[in-house]
Amino acid sequence: MSHAPSDRPVKVLVYSDDVNTRQQVILALGRRPHPDLPELEYVEVATEPVVIQNMDAGDIALAILDGEAVPAGGMGIAKQLKDEIYQCPPVLVLTGRPQDAWLATWSRAEAAVPHPIDPIQLAEAVIGLLRPSVPATH
Prior knowledge:
Layout (H helix, E strand, L loop, with lengths): L9 E6 L3 H11 L10 E6 L2 H10 L2 E7 L7 H11 L6 E5 L5 H6 L4 E4 L4 H12 L8
Parallel strand pairs: 1-2, 1-3, 3-4, 4-5
Helix pairs in contact: 1-5
């Protein structure tokens, strides 16, 4: 059986200085959070320069950035990406608390999910961000 190009995995960048946070995100989403989406391929990143390098390469479909990461927080990185990358892919920011959602808005992230990570809330946000880019099959 041949696979259509849309069956190729989509790359999701997961940034946090904390390996446990990266693992929580990946475990919460799994390989395919929704049947309408292609399989996800994760790019785990622990430092800001590597986030910028991966995003500049242009093959990332979604960036999930930890707003609590140090020394570079995900919200500041999100704002930089949105300011500097033409047609920047969607960004989801993990906030320290639900009350920090306004900061995610400032960062121009398309979605925010608070710590501790709720797998259902995270999956719904990711599906909402990736679904518009999934080509319709006719």
